[in-house]
Write a structure and sequence with these properties.
Layout: E1 4-10, E2 13-19, H1 26-30, E3 39-45, H2 46-62, E4 66-72, H3 81-93, E5 101-106, H4 108-120, E6 127-131, H5 134-140, E7 145-150, E8 153-160, E9 165-168, H6 178-195, H7 197-210, H8 218-235, H9 251-260, H10 268-285, H11 291-303, H12 316-323, E10 335-339, E11 345-350, H13 353-362
Parallel strand pairs: 2-9, 3-4, 3-5, 5-6, 6-9
Antiparallel strand pairs: 1-2, 7-8, 10-11
Helix pairs in contact: 3-4, 5-6, 5-8, 6-7, 6-8, 6-10, 9-10, 9-12, 10-11, 10-13
């Protein structure tokens, strides 16, 4: 398996991203960062803990670490302040110190929650991301955004706190259910749409084979997505220059759909797919994206098994309530990431109410 390495430096600290190494090699790699005998706490959801957690714990113990494992319930509903509070109590019970390390083993929810806890417990302890889903490997584990949801919206409470190491083993995806492939594929398509027209064309050509599950063909695609995100984050680590906002293509509407339906009706990728379709519609209305490319975007999403429209109507007033609380709102105006052709995103775009209403209607909203 070919190995790719990237890095992000922020605040004097380096976040290393390794794509293509077996998770079995992680304990040995940690010896370069963590002294033997240190306390390492693995935080994982219950399902992942059974399949991947036990071998990792054995490897860490064999490398000389004092290891604890703390499970969290699966699903977006674990990304809460209450669950973070439970983890604080568990870390205190395990006698975690500033010299201890946390390892997030799981999907995006586990990574976001563990990162938030790592950023805030003892005012910061180092942590490692070991993503086990496609969505987490190409997106959620990279970039240092950590956080939890509150009833008023998704990811509204959080911190910029980079993992010291992101260890991406694509082979872990062999057992990934089809629903999770679709979930992650939305973020893969996003990267082609916002930053790499060549990647977008590759996905168009190979979408049928890629959606069958893990194969070696996935390794360079995962590496390319990781490279794009690392490059964007490095240029705008705390989202203060506007560039990093391009990573949120489709997320304003997508996050509003998730929140408005209580995080139960749609997986993240499904909601983001609908959001990208709406953003593509807005891009065409603004004269930035031609009709052919908008149709190509919708077609690729559909071939990936992702929706373009909501399955059930969501009250417009309710959706707009959540949209108004999006992190990209500035002075009360909702700002969107649009496309100037496939492969080039344009962030910070204010949209007229009539245009937004038409785009939402196109997505059944």
């Amino acid at each position: 398996m070919s190995v790719s390495r990237f890095e992000i430096t922020s605040g004097g600290l380096r976040s290393d991203i390794v794509v293509g190494e077996s998770v079995a090699r992680l304990p040995k790699a940690l010896l370069k960062l963590v002294r033997p005998g240190a306390h390492v706490v693995v935080i994982s959801d219950a399902a992942v803990s059974q399949s991947f957690g036990k071998p990792l714990v054995r490897g860490l113990k064999a490398a000389g670490y004092d290891v604890s494992i703390v499970p969290v319930p699966s699903g977006e509903r674990s990304k809460t302040l209450a669950q973070a509070g439970r983890l604080y109590h568990e870390l205190a019970r395990c006698r975690v110190e500033r010299g201890s390390w946390l390892i997030a083993l799981g999907g995006g929810v586990v990574g976001d929650l563990t990162g938030f806890v790592a950023a805030t417990y003892l005012r910061g302890v180092p942590f490692v991301q070991v993503p086990t889903t496609l969505l987490a490997q190409v997106d959620a584990s990279i970039g240092g955004k950590t956080g939890v949801d509150i009833p008023e919206g998704k990811n509204l409470v959080g911190s910029f706190y980079h993992p010291r190491l992101v260890w991406i083993d694509p082979v872990l995806l062999r057992s990934l259910p089809n629903a999770h492939w679709r979930n992650g594929m939305a973020e893969v398509i996003k990267y082609g749409a916002i930053a790499d027209a060549k990647l977008f064309r590759l996905l168009e050509a190979k979408i049928g084979r890629l959606m069958k599950g893990y194969s070696a063909a996935w390794i360079p695609i995962i590496a390319r997505c990781a490279q794009i995100k690392a490059s964007v984050v490095q240029k705008d680590p705390r989202e203060t220059r506007g560039l990093r906002a391009i990573l949120n293509f489709g997320h304003s509407v997508g996050h509003a759909i998730e929140a408005a339906t209580g995080y139960l009706a749609y997986r993240h990728g499904e909601a983001i797919s609908i959001g990208m379709f709406a953003a593509g519609w807005l891009s065409q209305q603004r004269g930035l994206l031609d009709a052919v490319d908008r149709i190509r975007l919708g077609t690729l999403l559909t071939k990936a098994g992702l929706p373009l429209r909501v399955r059930k109507p969501i009250a417009r007033e309710r959706l707009m309530w959540y949209l108004a609380r999006d992190k990209k709102v500035e002075r009360g105006a909702i700002k969107f990431v649009l496309l100037r052709g496939l492969g080039q995103a344009v962030p910070g775009q204010a949209v007229e109410p009539e245009a937004l209403a038409a785009a939402l209607a196109a997505s059944g909203l």
